[in-house]
Amino acid sequence: MRKAKFSLISILLLLLTGGVVLAEGNGYDIGRWLTSSGGGTRGSEHYVVQDVTGQAAAGASQSENFLLYAGFLTTTSSAPVPPTVALSTATYSVGEGDGNATITVNLSAASAETVTVGYATSDGTATAPDDYTAASGTLTFNSSETSKTFSVSIVDDAVVEIDEAVYLSLSNPSNATLGEPSTAVLTIVDDESGCFIATAAYGTPIAEEIQILREFRDEYLLTNPVGQALVDIYYSVSPPIAKFITEHPSLKPIVRTGLVPAVAMSTVAVNTSAAEKMAIVGLLVLVSVAVAIWATRRRGKVPKYI
User: What is the pLDDT of residue 302?
Assistant: First the structure.
């Protein structure tokens, strides 16, 4: 509530015009006298004039209103609601070989004021600078702008690895509030992760069987040195085999049949409990070690001739 102050000129104007012109209030320029009920409007704001006791002066004449209303001036106008600023989605995805990921930030409505918001990346399973280049800064929305973008640079390496995540976040908005989502996950899809032979056999990289084989690779093979070595060998020898299968479509049903045991074993493995998964990993390590020992001893044998 603001105390109203009235000049002598305003009083004279009021008396001469029968109360059509209001005096200048404290910080307000009111160009119309309020009704005798004690209320009125100016623009988008609504004003109420009260007397010194805080009671509306209902029923008073206009000339009496002025003298009685020379007390307190209040307004029922509400402050404008600021827009919200948020990321366009909670999940983003980019191929490791794409170079950059473009992240979009939206403003819920255009603002007459300049809006700013900070952004930043942080390590998830992906780490900077090995997998991506850390990014941070401030986005500025000028009047009438409702969308901005920033980029995250992706590092393309030759390492076979699981898909990795980068965390994104917004902070410190000005002339706006944070909306949802204000955080998101950017997934970097490894471009060395194709199951070449299986993809050639099934004809598409999104076949359910291929997804199961990838899960098995990511959860069991890439989590230990022996498994990583086996994956590296597979990726070094499988491209020409996959090419041959692609060039000879009649081989695809045969290869798919040959992959049934591997797919079945992988299905069982990826749908087991944590304890069962540890047992499977241990078994795979033992089998791999046994194969390695057998191969070493076999190479060490020298054929004897009589």
Answer: 55
Nearest alpha carbon to residue 66 among 26, 100, 95, 25: 25
pTM of the predicted model over 0.85? no
Q: Is residue 1 pLDDT above 70, yes or no?
A: no
Sequence length of the chain is: 306
- Rounded to whole angstroms, how far apart are CA atoms 48 and 65? 12
- Is residue 85 a contact partner of residue 170, using CB atoms and an 8 Å limit? yes
Query: What domains does the chain contain, in order, with CATH numbers?
Result: 2-75 (no CATH), 84-189 (2.60.40.2030), 196-300 (no CATH)
Q: Is the pLDDT of residue 209 over 60?
A: yes
Judged on CB neighbours under 10 Å (0-12, 13-18, 19+), 112 is: exposed
Give the range among 28-32, 244-248, 252-256, 264-268 with minimum mean pLDDT. Answer: 28-32
Tokens of residue 7, six digits: 């000049």
How far apart, in whole angstroms, are the C-alpha atoms of residue 47 and residue 32? 11
- Supply φ then ψ for residue 97, to 5 degrees: -90, 5
Helix (H, G, I), strand (E, B) or coil at 172: strand
Radius of gyration of the chain (CA): 37
Q: Which residues of 234-254 are buried (b: 16+ CB within 10 A; e: fewer)?
A: bbeebeeebeebeeeeebeee
| Encoded amino acid at 6, one letter | F
- Confidence (pLDDT) at 218: 81
Strands 84-87 and 177-178: what pairing?
parallel
Q: In the sheet where 100-107 sits, what is the strand order?
A: 147-153, 100-107, 84-87, 177-178
> What pLDDT is recorded for position 84?
96
Q: Is the peptide bond before 303 cis (omega within 30 degrees of 0)?
A: no
